[in-house]
Amino acid sequence: MKNIFLILLLIGFSSCLKLDSNLYNNDNTIQEYLLDNYTGEQDFVLDASYDISPSLIYKFSLASKAPEDASAFNIQAIYIGDQNRINTDTVIVYCHGNKWHMDFYWQRAKLLANTGGKNRFGVLMFDYRGFGLSEGEPTEEGMYADTKACLAWLKSKGLSDERLVMYGFSLGSAPACELTANPEVLKPTRIILEAPFGSAEVMVQDASQLNMPAAYFTDLKIDNAEEIRKVKQPFLWLHGLNDLFLNYKTHGEVVYKNYKGVFSRKIMVEAADHGEIPEKIGFEDYSKNLEAFIIGN
């Protein structure tokens, strides 16, 4: 009787329990990107030594069309660096997490742009459809299409495979892993995953503690733990040992163990919750670790 009651309760509230709408924690109410002038919640705020020259901040839009789209959507992006050097620079494509929009992640993008010295690497960040000023509604296939559109833009500027580094944080681990495992536009030379999903299935089990299929709660097909098996490029995994959103044991560790490529490294950060890794490990040490991985040391 107890099990029957639970099933009826779940059916009655299934729309509330649907994971998709909760996972895409987007905000599309903003009127502009404020970047350093943004005063909303952020994981951390860097000091002035990390500031980027306005001449090296390029805001632009590009068209993105997923297979199910009737027409393309305009996706907003920011490139940090000299566009004229994309044909020679190494570029980090930063796929951000599920929260709000690029203003929330601006400090992280600046930190990457200071890795190895001021603007040593180019950094491309973008808002998935439905996030910030990007048009449309969030979908998994749309997220992949938006990432591919950014890669196509970089390719048109002269970026080649051996100078592309994919970086996925949290939700962003899905497009980073998918497009490294199954490259269509460019084949990344390295991949960095910070607090990655194992799969939508594990996310549901962690959240619900119910032995029910993920399809009941979500239409997402994210499965980084399987996609990583196809990745042969060097792989860096970062995860906080106190991550309360994506537990390192059920998510990141499974992804890491399934990797069978040429080189892997993990950085586990004591007492770091989701989003706290750069600050808890220390900005300087974070940057040094990323630089060493990117240049192959």
What does this structure look like?
The chain has about 300 residues and is an alpha/beta fold. Helices cover about 30% and strands about 20% of the residues. It has one domain: Alpha/Beta hydrolase fold, catalytic domain (Rossmann fold), CATH 3.40.50.1820. An eight-stranded mixed β-sheet has the order 2-3-6-4-7-8-9-10, sandwiched between helices. Strands 1-5 form a two-stranded parallel ribbon. Strand 2 and strand 3 form a beta hairpin. The radius of gyration is 19 Å and the shape is globular.
List the helices and strands and how they pair.
Layout: H1 2-12, H2 14-17, H3 19-23, E1 25-26, E2 57-64, E3 73-80, E4 91-95, E5 99-100, H4 102-113, E6 122-126, H5 140-156, E7 164-169, H6 173-181, E8 190-194, H7 200-208, H8 224-227, E9 235-240, H9 252-258, E10 264-269, H10 277-281, H11 283-295
Parallel strand pairs: 1-5, 4-6, 4-7, 7-8, 8-9, 9-10
Antiparallel strand pairs: 2-3, 3-6
Helix pairs in contact: 5-6
- In round numbers, the mean pLDDT is 88
Listing every helix as H and every strand as E from the N terminus to the C terminus, the arrangement reads HHHEEEEEHEHEHEHHEHEHH
Q: Which superfamily, in CATH terms, is the homologous superfamily?
A: Alpha/Beta hydrolase fold, catalytic domain
Outline the low-pLDDT stretches: 1-19, 207-217
